[in-house]
Design a protein that fits this description.
With 179 residues, the chain is mainly alpha-helical. Helices cover 61% and strands 8% of the residues. The chain has a domain of 117 residues: Rossmann fold (3-Layer(aba) Sandwich), CATH 3.40.50.300. Strand 2 and strand 3 form a beta hairpin. The termini are far apart.
Amino acid sequence: MTGEPDWSFVESIVSDLKRRLDSMGPVNLDAIEEYDELEERHSFLRGQHDDLVRSKTELMEVIERINEETQRRFAETFAKVRENFRDMFKELFGEKGQADLMLLDESDPLESGIEVIAKPPGKKLQSITLLSGGERSMTAVALLFSIYMIKPSPFCVLDELDAPLDESNINRFVKVLDR
């Protein structure tokens, strides 16, 4: 070897490199600047995402505390109204009358319906829907007054409440109003 380069080999390498460079397509001279902008945007959005995740977690904790407090207060109030309802029903129907309030779904009291059960003297314990009009009215009055005993209202309008009531029920109703 004389130290002379093999020009055909060099030309083949240069040709190969040109072909590979051409296959890459044109060079985007703004790519670095675009990358920096996108990286900054990505960083901003990542921060926004992290803030939203933190906020969601905090909100879920607040909602949980509110639900617990609401369930506690509902349970306390329901127990008081239930006790008052039983007493008020007996006052309106006599000592032999029985009534109760029952949650339809005790596992989820805030979403549960409430069943009103009543047993006027001489009748079976049954749903309020099976009572006569007068019995339903008096049961509704017992429930309404049992709620007012917990949370009084400055006034209450009872329009034609006495219409389905017979004389003895009217007298008991008036007696309750007078106290």
